[in-house]
């Protein structure tokens, strides 16, 4: 056996073996024939006869050769495949071993990748579901939303009046079909127990316009809305599951919604949400009766309007169409429509709404983190390759091909990125769950935050590309390395060349620049949030219990009956121990969405001026006292403001100052709401101190308040308590049940909770940006550490010599610091440019903070410098402790 | 020698090749010559048909080929048994012997069956 092996290797000459299968077979058969001829000659045949006999004995040479050549070709191919797989298996095994041999590096690389990829997958999943996924409508691409803007901000998305809806229908030529609907409202579903549900009025054609058909039942018929009392209703898929247990026989069932029996005629598909708000019940909306009310037909702007574009009509064309109609309507109905225009925008833009900017900011931040991650990994791999140069040189010297070596390195990178990518996906799923909890209220209703296949594909490609990108650099440098030189020159075996040092410096500078930008962004957003939350709201939010009641119209149909109930409830609650005060309001503070136009008796608006729209709430007598809002002039509401008494109004300081600059607001008379010349003048009887309503505005906006004795609508209750407000909830519930057991009481909480939900959408980007900033800081610190560590290690011998020659520690430290500090300064300088861009990019999200807020940016730079300083302390300390005897030996 | 239509089972050729190579590495010509002499040329068919069989056996991993120099300094492709080939040789030899014994025993039988007249 051993003998056999030895002979094997002696005959293993590469040049000896024919390369092509056909040539190999040819020479094998040739040998056979020659041997046979020799044997025949030896038997005494003539050369000619010997040849003929040999061929005859052999058979068809051609046939045999072809068959054998084919067999050999197939064989060779199979073997090449086997070899390739063998190599791969060996590479992977080797990669695993070398990864385990440098556990710190591997753990760092995997963690870095996981964080970078995880953050990107989570953010991409969110952005995709909000901005890229199709809306849950059959006609998603051709749907437009029509608004009637009358100002800036949320006034740019004004609702339409019934008259305008009808005018658009008559004049437009962009849309195939159009449908109006109203925002959702709370309703009462009577059953074993009264429940609060969301109900929404929609024109029967809405579902058809959106491209939706009911999953059960026939849905609305076009004439359903024409009955005076509509007796049919549709329910959402969610309501079907939640309220009716998903039972099949629900269609045709009669439910009592808001005191009226209605038949369920259909169920909307799963995942369907209306273009605005969300609802459990849909009721048919009839426009015709509304057209008969001369005041509200053009004076009340309540309607949402969506249209399905005709084929071939672009959104721009539709918008121009609407602009033109808007101008015409403004001219025709000057009195009501002054200052109102019409615009059309793609429904997606309308539904994405305010989330677009924060999402894009998030996406940009995640991308920056990814860049930092790549730079970090590239740096780490560079160090690792340099420290492994000897290993490679030995392997090249032992006959490993460069190609194999490069392939080996690429395998290592891809392996790392595969593990990192997998960990990143797990992290992303966790992150999305977190995001779902944080962001539920601040994202469009149709967004389903999940890691879909698209996100996974993009992320794994990202992982692979990253692996290839940072594997390629070191691989190329190995391809170029000179094994002899590396092996011979021992002292330089672990040092870096000028070029790699520069590459590493650029990488660190880039990381620092990106990190400063991200931190500055986080700082600016945090400052902005801090500014808007820290600024006084104008009322005391502590010790306030809040909840909402729903007064059934059927039971409390008149103003008097409602006022009586309000008084009764307020008196009973005030009698409870621990209660200081109580009030009803139409909207909780910071949640007032209602706006009304107003006209001053003595100073009608000039014809070139549009009507101002003022935030308006309806409150009971004790509202201002309950919230501790001081009265500045006049009086608050009281029992004298009966329903049939002259109508009164209280305004805030901001409104008084803006519209009565001479200070004569008290006693002034105004018209509010749809301009109805027959309506009585309303007298301003009090001026109260300002309170903030819009959380993004530091300056309090003008506000007006009506008395609930004259307009008793809106049943949000606020109770000022002596101690913990929530401990009183049970007693309050009992008290109300004693007055009317059928009154649903819900949304029980504190005013602090209410205010907190107002600020929630502002908090989300700050939390996420801070997380990204921390991530970037961590990665950049690691990058700085790695740079100084490698630098110090590669100059160890030189440092030893310097110490031996009498250099002090301080001199050594400043030597290292100067070398790396240059790159850090460069990074900070580039980061300064980045900060300017960041400020500009964030402008729309910053409130009460300048784009280049020195405090936020200074803090960002300081945090970075402190962290980088800590990171470089360790290697510099180690450098100054170099023992010259040890290194120089 | 062993054409596909010679009536010889494919397995028989392979067993004979395995037997030849069990003596040691040999080239195709040597294998053919040995089989001819060992069987007294009783199976005499075209020698060329041996080669496809050799390639098939290589592919199955029973034998391996290597180019070497003969005693007369000629290059030739030598085949040798692999571990798997040796195992095949053992198994097939026993199988063949059992088969051959059974068949010859049956053919040589003198006692007539009960249903024979």
Structure commentary:
The complex is a heterodimer of chains A (889) and B (117). By secondary structure, chain A is α+β, with helices and mostly antiparallel strands. Chain A folds into four domains: 2-91, no CATH class; 140-354, no CATH class; 356-534 and 758-888, no CATH class; 551-743, no CATH class. In chain A, 54% of the residues lie in helices and 14% in strands. Chain A has 28 helices and 23 strands. Chain A has a six-stranded mixed barrel. In chain A, helix 5 runs antiparallel to helix 17 (453-480), helix 20 packs across helix 23 (729-739) and helix 24 runs antiparallel to helix 26. The longest helix of chain A has 44 residues, at 751-794. The radius of gyration of chain A is 40 Å and the shape is extended. Mean pLDDT of chain A is 83; it is low at 1-15 and 490-494. The N and C termini of chain B lie far apart (42 Å). In chain B, a hairpin with a 5-residue loop joins strand 2 and strand 3. Chain B has 117 residues and is of the alpha+beta class. Chain B has a three-stranded antiparallel β-sheet with strand order 1-3-2. Mean pLDDT of chain B is 85; it is low at 3-7. Chain B has one domain (10-102): Orthogonal Bundle (Arc Repressor Mutant, subunit A), CATH 1.10.10. At the A-B interface, helix 1, helix 2 and helix 4 of A face helix 2, helix 3, strand 2 and strand 3 of B.
Q: Can you tell me the CATH superfamily of chain B?
A: Winged helix-like DNA-binding domain superfamily/Winged helix DNA-binding domain
Major sheet of chain A: order of its strands? Answer: 4-5-10-7-9-8
Overall pLDDT of chain A, averaged?
83
Largest interface: A-B, 33 and 27 residues
Please mark out the parts of chain B with pLDDT under 50 across 5 or more consecutive residues, or reply none.
3-7
Provide the helix percentage of chain B. 40-55%
- CATH fold assignment of chain B: Arc Repressor Mutant, subunit A
Question: Would you report the number of β strands of chain B?
Answer: 3
- Give the distance, in angstroms, between the N- and C-terminal Cα atoms of chain A: 50 Å
Q: Treating each run of at least 4 consecutive H or I residues as one helix, how many helices of chain B?
A: 4
pLDDT < 50 stretches of chain A: 1-15, 490-494
Structural class estimated from helices and strands of chain B: alpha+beta
Roughly what fraction of the amino acids of chain A lie in strands? 5-15%
Q: Termini of chain B, distance in Å?
A: 42 Å
Radius of gyration of chain A: 40 Å
Rg of chain B over CA atoms, rounded to whole Å, is 17 Å
- Indicate the overall shape of chain A: extended
- Largest sheet properties of chain B: 3 strands, antiparallel
Determine and state the CATH class of chain B: Mainly Alpha
């Amino acid at each position: 056996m051993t003998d056999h092996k030895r002979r094997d290797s002696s005959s293993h000459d590469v040049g000896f073996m024919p390369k092509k299968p056909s040539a190999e077979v040819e020479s094998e058969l040739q040998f056979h024939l020659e041997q046979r001829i020799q044997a025949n000659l030896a038997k005494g045949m003539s050369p000619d006869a010997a040849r003929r006999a040999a061929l005859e004995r052999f058979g068809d040479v051609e046939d045999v050769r072809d068959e054998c050549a084919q067999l050999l070709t197939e064989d060779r191919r199979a073997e090449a495949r086997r070899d390739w797989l063998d190599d791969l298996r060996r590479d992977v095994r080797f990669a695993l071993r070398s990864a385990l041999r440098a556990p710190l590096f591997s753990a760092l690389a995997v963690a870095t990748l996981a964080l970078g990829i995880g953050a990107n997958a989570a953010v991409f999943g969110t952005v995709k579901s909000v901005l890229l996924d199709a809306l849950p409508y059959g006609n998603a691409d051709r749907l437009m939303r029509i608004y009637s803007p009358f100002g800036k901000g949320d006034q740019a998305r004004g609702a339409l009046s019934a008259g305008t809806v009808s005018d658009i229908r008559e004049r437009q030529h962009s849309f195939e079909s159009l449908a109006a609907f109203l925002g959702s409202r709370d309703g009462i579903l009577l059953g074993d127990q009264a429940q609060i549900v969301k109900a929404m009025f929609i024109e029967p054609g809405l579902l058809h316009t959106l491209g939706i058909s009911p999953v059960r039942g026939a849905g609305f018929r076009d004439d359903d809305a024409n009955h005076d009392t509509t007796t049919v209703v549709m329910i959402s898929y969610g309501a079907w599951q939640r309220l009716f247990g998903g039972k099949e026989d629900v269609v045709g069932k009669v439910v009592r919604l808001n005191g009226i029996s209605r038949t369920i005629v259909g169920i909307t598909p799963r995942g369907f949400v209306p273009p605005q708000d969300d609802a459990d019940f849909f009721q048919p909306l009839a426009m015709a009766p509304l057209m008969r009310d001369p005041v509200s037909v053009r004076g009340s702007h309540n309607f949402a309007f969506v249209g399905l574009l005709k084929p071939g009509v672009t959104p721009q064309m539709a918008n121009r169409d609407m602009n033109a109609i808007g101008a015409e309507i403004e001219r025709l109905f000057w009195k009501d429509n002054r200052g109102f225009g019409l615009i059309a925008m793609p429904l997606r833009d309308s539904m994405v709404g305010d989330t677009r900017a924060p999402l894009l900011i998030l996406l940009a931040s995640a991308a920056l983190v990814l860049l930092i991650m790549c730079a970090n990994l590239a740096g780490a791999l560079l160090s690792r390759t340099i420290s492994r140069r000897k290993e490679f040189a030995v392997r090249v010297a032992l006959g490993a091909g460069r190609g194999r070596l490069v392939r080996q390195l690429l395998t290592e990178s891809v392996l790392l990125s595969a593990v990192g990518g997998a960990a990143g996906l797990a992290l992303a799923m966790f992150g999305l769950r977190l995001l779902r909890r944080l962001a539920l209220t601040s994202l469009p209703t149709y967004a389903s935050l999940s890691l879909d296949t698209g996100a996974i594909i993009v992320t794994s490609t990202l992982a692979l590309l990253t692996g290839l990108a940072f594997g390629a650099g070191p691989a190329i440098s190995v391809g170029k390395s000179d094994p002899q030189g590396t092996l011979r020159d021992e002292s330089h075996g672990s040092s870096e060349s000028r070029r790699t040092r520069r590459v590493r410096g650029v990488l660190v500078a880039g990381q620092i620049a990106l990190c400063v930008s991200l931190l500055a962004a986080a700082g600016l957003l945090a400052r902005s949030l801090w500014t808007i939350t820290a600024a006084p709201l104008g009322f005391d939010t502590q010790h306030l219990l809040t909840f909402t009641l729903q007064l059934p119209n059927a039971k409390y149909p008149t103003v008097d009956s409602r006022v009586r109930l309000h008084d009764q409830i307020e008196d009973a609650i005030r009698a409870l121990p621990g209660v200081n005060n109580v009030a009803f309001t139409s909207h909780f503070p910071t949640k007032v969405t209602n706006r009304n136009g107003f006209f001053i008796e003595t100073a009608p608006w000039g014809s070139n001026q549009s009507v101002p729209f003022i935030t308006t709430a309806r409150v009971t007598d004790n509202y201002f006292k309950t919230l501790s809002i001081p009265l500045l002039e006049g009086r608050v509401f009281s029992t004298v403001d009966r329903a049939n008494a002259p109508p009164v109004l209280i305004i805030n300081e901001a409104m008084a100052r803006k519209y009565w600059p001479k200070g004569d607001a008290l006693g002034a008379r105004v018209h509010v709401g749809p301009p109805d010349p027959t309506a009585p003048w309303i007298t301003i009887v009090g001026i109260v101190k300002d309170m903030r309503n819009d959380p993004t505005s530091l300056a309090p906006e003008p506000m007006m308040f009506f008395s609930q004795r004259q307009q008793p609508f809106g049943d949000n209750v606020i109770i000022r308590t002596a101690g913990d407000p929530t401990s009183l909830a049970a007693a309050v519930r009992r008290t109300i049940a004693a007055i009317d057991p059928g009154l649903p009481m819900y949304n029980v909480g504190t005013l602090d909770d209410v205010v907190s939900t107002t600020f929630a959408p502002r908090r989300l980007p700050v939390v996420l940006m801070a997380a990204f900033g921390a991530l970037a800081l961590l990665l950049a610190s690691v990058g700085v550490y790695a740079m100084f560590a490698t630098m110090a290690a590669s100059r160890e011998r030189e440092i030893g010599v310097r110490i031996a020659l009498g250099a002090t520690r301080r001199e050594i430290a400043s030597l290292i610091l100067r070398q790396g500090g240059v790159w850090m300064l460069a990074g900070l300088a580039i980061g300064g440019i980045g900060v300017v861009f960041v400020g500009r990019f964030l402008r729309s999200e910053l409130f009460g903070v300048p784009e280049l807020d020195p405090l936020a940016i200074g803090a960002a730079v300081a945090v970075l410098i402190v962290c980088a300083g800590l990171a470089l302390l360790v290697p510099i300390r180690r450098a100054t402790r170099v023992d010259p005897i040890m290194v120089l030996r | 020698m062993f054409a596909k239509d010679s009536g010889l089972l494919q397995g028989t050729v392979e067993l004979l090749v395995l037997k030849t190579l069990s003596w040691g590495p040999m080239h195709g010509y040597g294998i053919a010559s040995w089989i001819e002499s060992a069987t007294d040329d009783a199976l005499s068919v075209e020698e060329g048909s041996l080669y496809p069989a050799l390639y098939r056996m290589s592919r199955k991993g029973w034998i391996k080929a290597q180019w070497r120099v003969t005693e007369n300094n000629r290059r030739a492709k030598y085949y040798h048994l692999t571990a798997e080939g040796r195992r095949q040789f053992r198994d097939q030899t026993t199988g063949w012997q059992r088969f051959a014994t059974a068949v010859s025993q049956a053919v040589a039988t003198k006692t007539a069956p009960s249903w024979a007249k």
